[in-house]
Amino acid sequence: MIAEKIKVDSAIATADDSQLVQVMLMLDGGHQCEIALMPDAPLLGELFQALTTEPEKSESKLFQIPIEEGNGALYFPSTSLVAIATDPAVSLTIPEESKPIETREEIEPDDPVQQLEWQLNTYHKLEKLSPNYGKIERIPHVSGPEFLERFYIRNKPVIFTDLMDNWKARSLWNPQYFKEKYGHVTVGAQFNRESNQQYEWYRNKHQQMVLFGEFVDKVLQGGDTNDYYMGAYNANFSREGLHGLLDDIELFPEYLTDSKDVNKIALWFGPGGAITPLHFDPLNTFLCQVYGRKRVRLISPSQKHLLGAYGRFFSNIDLENPNFERYPQLKDLDIMELIIEPGNVLFLPVGWWHQVRSLEVSISLSFLNLAFENTFDF
To answer: What's the distance, Cα to Cα, between the start and end of the chain in Å?
Structure first.
């Protein structure tokens, strides 16, 4: 039992008599004490609280009540208080005691966002313990089971250097080839991208149809720009006139299904300076560089909470021009930067954030038809 001595001299009312409440305290043993208090005096609330609290749940307090015009004092423990009478009647709000928690289900769960951020920060710290942290391996192809075990299951990017060695596209594909053989085909591309920072979010508004040959001329004559680009959303392999391009490529049988599904293969073509803004893909992808070079900036999923994600897959952060004043968390961001050259195949694992810039006129393919489980609800 803890005894607490409470000084109450300052709580005794000194105001006009019309504002006072006459308080009669009745104690065990038949003792009584009458004092005058203001209705909002803290002492009055403490006395009522002591009266209404079950003895076994209360900490005993030692009250000190001035008597005989301050010349003496009445001391009594809170457990001795039997009753209180007031004139006039006083209405006090006594806070309800919280009920004891009987089951786990009654416990309010912690903030899941805060918990997830802690977990992601922890995973990232563990990633950085590796001596190879930040390095993307460049290796010849490995067997399907080895790829599955070393990279796919572990959600680890890798660059294969020889998967495209037997592609006719390596020697055939260039802007002139596209114009000469497919220049008459109508294709889709994005235009006026520089007029709207959210050109990917509003991609349908930037979609235009154009002859492939005209688009090739624009790419070759316009210099470095992000104003126009042919990408995955343009679905150009679904156009019958371009199906011949698929004869120039070979699938990777140990990594991909044996079907050249036009809905799971995308053609990327555009000038130097074309940018795919920061985003992640909700499934695993192979990015195959056929012509020209691209710079790829990669960010681990464990840093997702630093990237201002919106619209499920996008970030409002531009790694080309990071705004550290608005997004100070970017100072803690670890970015892996790499260059993919003709013949390189980059495995982009599901959930990895990436921003891509064409360093020169560039032609790429991306594949979604992986031979392993590649459907992840989001």
So the answer is: 56
Integer Cα distance of 252 and 249 in angstroms = 10
Report DSSP state, residue 225: -
**Bond into 88 cis (ω within 30):** yes
Q: Which residues of 135-151 are buried (b: 16+ CB within 10 A; e: fewer)?
A: ebeeeebbebeebbeeb
For 35-76, how does the pLDDT look when each residue is reduced to its tens digit (9 = 90+)? 888 888 888 888 888 887 776 666 678 888 877 766 778 888
169/183 Cα distance (integer angstroms): 17
For residue 357, give Cα distances in angstroms to 96, 174, 225, 295, 305. 62, 18, 10, 5, 23
Q: What is the pTM of this model?
A: 0.71
Rounded Cα distance between 368 and 374, Å, is 8
Q: What is the per-residue pLDDT across 298-347, written as a single tens digit (0 to 9) for each?
A: 999 999 888 887 767 888 889 998 888 888 888 889 999 999 999 999 99
Token readout for 88 is: 């006039």
Long-range pairs for 212-217: beta carbons < 8 A, 24 or more residues apart: 212/178, 212/179, 212/182, 212/183, 212/184, 212/185, 212/186, 212/187, 212/242, 213/178, 213/179, 213/182, 213/183, 213/184, 214/183, 215/187, 215/189, 215/269, 216/175, 216/176, 216/178, 216/179, 216/183, 217/179
